């Protein structure tokens, strides 16, 4: 994964990363609320030996005082000191055993200064513990030493803590947010690692060893109901025009005159692609004929709302002339050859010399677009693929499996077909996938409505209305 891929992935999954971070932060905050509050306070004293009482002596410290101070550290959290603290503060609300676990002591640098830190559930108890611990330690020391030559003298009294030292809410919130972010990243990478469906341009390129010829967005305007009335949808129209342009530049010196459109599995939008491409070619002024060679589940007649009872099968069987079966779509340069009656032997018909001759004959006058069944379920597309100048393979984002797309490309290669490119269908307009998947419709085509403007849309409608009125006359 490149840096650019990572940036795209972060941008596309920004919503989920943000949600994970917020949930983690809230969990960290909730954890802090459930934890008991602990207050900390500290007091400082120094150890003297003999008659020395000067602070300078304490800081420079005699070796005897330092040794004594070091040996007294363990006494601070001992049972005798805890008992003495309870004796001096009977209302402290803690037992001697509890007090032992709430006191720690340390030496301040290379000196005889002792620092005692106390923790408690209230600020008052923490302050009392810290202050009393020094005098209690001195009492226990004198009892052990049997004299008053060794003293623990308080130097800095403990203050009343203003805020709890634990739980550290800020740290818990940050840790929770970081954990949530890491978990979302882990889920994203795991999903990417185990995903077997086509998601990116790279997936298509690796599976088919060819490039992407075009991408069609996921929009209602390309549904069967709206396919023939989507002239105002600039996003889908621009995508189709881009596909048309790319097809023309596949081979500048010898552009394809006949193209077969298929897919690896059913339901991936091959008929939508073939219909859209044929219409776009015809609108550019190029005579185009769309042949419905899907003799198992023909759809072209239904899409264009024409009678498909007479068509390709009758022409191949010699029952009707080609001119009788071909229909012109409105007054455009688009001509249609529906499937006709569904035969019992579709593969034999499509693989016949008559079919090859028909495609060759039509390609001398038209740009021929042939819609055929998917490659993996039946052999129709493989049989006919060598009779055309090129094959367009259709894949659908989130539906087509990588292994199926790879197998379809291998089948075309085995029969010597010219795979000129892949059309990626139903690419996301926005949200998950729009730029990470490398299609970027939201970024590139999102502004077309403002570019063309409302006036342009109205003008387009007026022009079409004028054309209809002229035809009606």
Features:
single chain, about 475 residues, alpha/beta, Alpha-Beta Plaits, Rossmann fold, 3 domains, eight-stranded mixed beta sheet, four-stranded antiparallel beta sheet, 20 helices, about 15% strand, disordered C terminus, EC 2.7.10.2
Short synopsis of the structure:
The protein is built from 20 helices and 12 strands. It is of the alpha/beta class and 473 residues long.
What can you see in these coordinates?
This protein has 20 helices and twelve strands. It is an alpha/beta fold and 473 residues long. The protein has three domains: 3-35 and 167-193, no CATH class; 39-156, EIF_2_alpha (Alpha-Beta Plaits), CATH 3.30.70; 198-462, Rossmann fold (3-Layer(aba) Sandwich), CATH 3.40.50.300. The strands form two sheets. It has an eight-stranded mixed sheet with strand order 5-12-11-6-10-7-9-8, with helices on both faces. Strands 2-3-1-4 form a four-stranded antiparallel sheet. Helix 2 runs antiparallel to helix 8 (169-194) and helix 10 (234-248) packs across helix 11 (270-283). The protein is rod-shaped and about 130 Å long. It starts with a helix and ends with a helix. 41% of the residues are buried.
């Amino acid at each position: 994964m490149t840096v650019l891929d990572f940036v795209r992935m972060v941008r596309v999954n920004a919503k989920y990363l943000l949600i994970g971070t917020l949930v983690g932060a809230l969990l960290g905050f909730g954890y802090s609320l459930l934890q008991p509050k602990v207050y900390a306070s500290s007091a400082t004293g120094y150890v003297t030996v003999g008659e020395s009482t000067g602070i300078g002596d304490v800081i420079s410290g005699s070796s005897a005082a330092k040794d004594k101070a070091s040996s007294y550290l363990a006494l601070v959290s001992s049972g005798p000191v805890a008992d003495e603290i309870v004796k001096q503060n009977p209302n402290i609300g803690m037992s001697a055993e509890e007090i032992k676990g709430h006191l720690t002591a340390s030496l301040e640098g290379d000196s005889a200064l002792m620092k005692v830190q106390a923790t408690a559930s209230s600020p008052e108890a923490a302050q009392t513990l810290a202050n009393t611990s020094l005098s209690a330690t001195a009492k226990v020391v004198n009892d052990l030493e049997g004299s008053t030559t060794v003293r623990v003298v308080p130097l800095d009294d403990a203050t009343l803590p203003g805020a709890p030292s634990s739980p550290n809410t800020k740290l818990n919130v940050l840790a929770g947010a970081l954990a949530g972010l890491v978990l979302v990243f882990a889920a994203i990478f795991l999903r990417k690692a185990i995903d077997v469906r086509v998601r990116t341009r790279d997936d298509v390129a690796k599976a088919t060893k060819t490039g992407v010829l075009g991408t069609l967005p996921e929009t209602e305007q390309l549904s069967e109901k709206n396919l023939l009335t989507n002239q105002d949808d600039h996003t889908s129209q621009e995508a189709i025009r881009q596909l048309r342009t790319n097809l023309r530049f596949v081979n500048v010196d010898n552009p394809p005159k006949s193209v077969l459109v298929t897919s690896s599995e059913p339901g991936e939008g091959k008929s939508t692609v073939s219909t859209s491409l044929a219409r776009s070619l015809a609108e550019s002024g190029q005579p185009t004929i769309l042949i419905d060679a899907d003799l198992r589940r023909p759809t072209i007649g239904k899409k264009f709302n024409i009678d498909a009872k007479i068509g390709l099968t009758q022409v191949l069987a010699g029952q009707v002339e080609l001119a009788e079966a071909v229909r012109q779509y409105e007054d455009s340069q688009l001509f249609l050859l529906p499937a006709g009656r569904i035969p019992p032997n579709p593969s034999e018909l499509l693989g016949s010399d008559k079919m090859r001759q028909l495609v060759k004959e039509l390609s001398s006058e038209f740009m021929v677009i042939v819609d055929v069944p998917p490659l993996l379920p039946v052999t129709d597309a493989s049989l006919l693929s060598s009779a055309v100048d090129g094959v367009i393979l259709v894949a659908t984002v989130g539906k087509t499996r990588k292994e199926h797309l790879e197998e379809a490309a291998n089948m075309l290669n085995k029969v010597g077909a010219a795979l000129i490119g892949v059309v990626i269908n139903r690419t996301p307009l926005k949200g998950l996938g729009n730029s990470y998947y490398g299609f970027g419709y939201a970024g590139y085509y999102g502004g077309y409505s403002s570019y063309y403007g409302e006036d342009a849309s109205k003008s387009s409608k007026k022009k079409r209305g004028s054309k209809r009125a002229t035809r009606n006359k």
